[in-house]
# Entry
Amino acid sequence: MPTIDLRSDTVTKPTPEMRRAMYEAEVGDDVFGEDPTVNRLEAMAAQRMGKEAAVFVASGTMGNLVSGLTHCQRGDEALLGHKAHMLMYESASLAAFGGVQMRTVPNDERGMLDPDQVEAAMRPRDPHQPRTAMVAVENTHNRCSGSVLGSEDIGTLAEIAHRAGAAFHIDGARIFNAAVALGVAPLELARPADTVTFCLSKGLSCPVGSLVCGSEEVIAQVRRNRRMVGGSMRQAGVIAAAGIVALDTMVDRLAEDHGNAKRLALGLGGMPGIVLDPSRIQTNIVIFEVKDRPAEAFIEALKGRGVLASFPERGKVRMVTHYGITAEDIDGALDLVEWVTRERAYGGR
# Structure
């Protein structure tokens, strides 16, 4: 039986249409602004996010880094959730390259930040304290089972940031998942952001790349910072072409991934030794607790049966649905998870 890979939506393969577009892409030197395919992708991205401009970067991590470098100076502070991807999984890049201190407020189970706590955490204008230069949120939220923030949530936090003179950044790696789940255009979620990133290489199934979107002035500085960290590319149209196909053809189908994730969550929620509330699953990420053994051992046992999952934190397992995973794969994965739980409970008999 083929392996069912639920580790992440980053394991997706480009579609046949993407491969053809990459092969046939018209290219030029992007550092000179002469790659027509990159230019088209950037214009499409800006339009989708309701912004004036966009810049193509190698990854979401790079997008968050160059956005932070644009908004913050050395000795400044960025305010974000305690479970934020920028804090947990990006190698402290903003601190290392930008000399920026990261300060956290708690994420709730939706990934939301309490507005009162955010306002209280904003630094006063005091030479003894760092300047709060940026507030960042994540939508959807990776470590909160792909939970979604709506436009009202985002608008409230953006208003607090702007009132205090700070920039507002959205790590929108999966913002199209959020938009599909809410039934809104992504620009409705991105509207108050000074910068917003989104990934092509997750649910949209491209082989590489992310976009940073914002005003023309801000994106000019983001582009300069991309150069500074070594992110400028030359004939990048060969990969940008896949992104154009993705924006044209892969957004609406994210609903299929969400349906498969709900199917998976409902199945897992009824199994012994697994703690999961299926009603909390909104998009394509399913995180659950394992009670009868270490999560690492559970993941290893699943791997032996042909199901791959990931380990987000102590005691928890993450499964992510994506292009290439079907409803039949979900049913097969559930059968194998049930086998593993039964094997543990009854000693393999």
Q: What stands out?
A: The radius of gyration is 21 Å.
